[in-house]
Design brief:
It is a single chain. α8 links the parallel β4 and β5 (about 180-185). Helices cover about 55% and strands about 5% of the residues. It contains 13 helices and five strands. It starts with a strand and ends with a helix. It has two domains: about 1-190 and about 300-325, Rossmann fold; about 210-295, Tyrosyl-Transfer RNA Synthetase (Orthogonal Bundle), CATH 1.10.240.10. Bound molecules: adenosine-5'-diphosphate and tryptophan (TRP).
Length: about 325
């Protein structure tokens, strides 16, 4: 089984990225061949400062390694190191109906949040389809916000296969030049809320970054938006942003006790935030220490990405050859 996914280097990785996606990358690297990349071409839709782009790409690579991706097991690489992806993206765009992209929620959300609606942002799902299809990926672990993009990828692959592969059977997905992928979404962490209660996202400024300084993490956790229920009053855990985050970290028995404290009253939001801070450090301090070590080892990270790109390219090459053959380009 080939598993593929990636995060954009449009900011520092946060706990939404971890619980929604990266934790699954780590689990899946033991179950098949994982290909995990840094989606720098996608991040060009929001990052226009070259120094920031280089720095953030590097930072995502470091974060992947510190969080437990093992370059001996999984292939880690930068999207832009595989130029064939852009070639495939163009070829796919010629079979992609406009309506398919016009219905994309992510595009509409980003424009509503003030990101400029240029062609790159509109064509974003086609590049993502190329990322997935060029490696004949079987499974794509992502957060819920990316589910529709994987569905669009399947639609584009079907359209391509129907156009160019006479033996393609859309019922079984067999006989095409491009394999139809499935998304994998972990239900209980599908949408991690940010400190303002909206979906946590690098582009919304509401994140808790995994590798921020102790002070910064504390500041962010203490700033989580809560209602003004007094300390002594019972509180509804299911309406509380702090509880939604506590749920990600707590063991079953811990969560049961926390839930009781909410419903009984007598514990304030500040105390629940302190608990969350404690859980954060328990979960991430190991990775944070590894991160500090990796920062000192620039050559190692560069080497991992170089070898990863070679491996990824070796998988992409025969798929591209077939695409060029069936389209008559070569
Ligand atoms: P961001 O929205 O912060 O820019 P990306 O778009 O780079 O994050 O997402 C990288 C991965 O993390 C994707 O699989 C995405 O679905 C997942 N992800 C991002 N934010 C969340 C969240 N708040 N909850 C669950 N998963 C998320
Ligand atoms: N669009 C994804 C996101 O914003 C990042 C991404 C780009 C991706 N290409 C991909 C994820 C291919 C999975 C597979 O989160």
């Amino acid at each position: 089984m080939r598993i593929l996914s990636g995060c954009q280097p449009s900011g520092k990785l946060h706990i939404g990225n971890y619980f929604g996606a990266i934790r699954q990358y780590v689990d899946f690297q033991h179950k098949g061949h994982g290909l995990y990349f840094i989606a720098d071409l996608h991040a060009l839709t929001t990052i226009r400062d070259p120094r920031k782009m280089a720095e953030l790409s590097r930072s995502v690579a470091l974060d992947y390694l510190a969080l437990g991706l093992d370059p001996e097991k999984a292939t880690l690489f930068k999207q832009s190191d595989i130029p064939e992806v852009c070639e495939l993206s163009w070829i796919l765009s010629t079979v992609t109906p406009m309506g398919l992209l016009e219905r994309a929620h992510s595009y509409k959300d980003k424009v509503a949040h003030g990101i400029s609606p240029d062609h790159g942002l509109f064509a974003y799902p086609v590049l993502m389809a190329a990322d997935i299809l060029i490696y004949h990926s079987d499974l794509v672990p992502v957060g819920k916000d990316q589910k529709q993009h994987v569905e669009i990828t399947r639609d584009i692959a079907v359209k391509f296969n129907q156009t160019y592969c006479p033996k393609f059977d859309p019922g079984t997905g067999k006989g095409g030049a491009l394999k139809l992928p499935e998304s994998f979404i972990q239900d209980d962490t599908a949408v991690v809320p940010g400190i303002d209660g909206q979906k946590m996202s690098k582009s919304y400024g509401n994140t808790i970054e995994i590798f921020a300084s102790d002070n910064e993490v504390k500041k962010k956790i203490m700033a989580i938006k809560t209602d003004s229920t007094p300390v002594e009053a019972p509180k509804d855990p299911d309406k509380c942003n702090v509880y939604a985050l506590l749920k990600l970290f707590a063991a079953k028995d811990e969560l049961k006790a926390i839930r009781e404290q909410y419903t009984k009253g007598g514990v304030g939001h500040g105390d629940f935030k302190k608990k969350l801070l404690e859980f954060f450090h328990r979960a991430f301090d190991g990775a944070r220490a590894k991160h500090t070590e990796l920062i000192k080892n620039e050559d190692y990270v560069n080497d991992v990405l170089r070898k990863g790109a070679e491996r990824a390219r070796a998988i992409a090459t025969p798929v591209m050859d077939e695409v060029r053959r069936v389209t008559g380009l070569r």
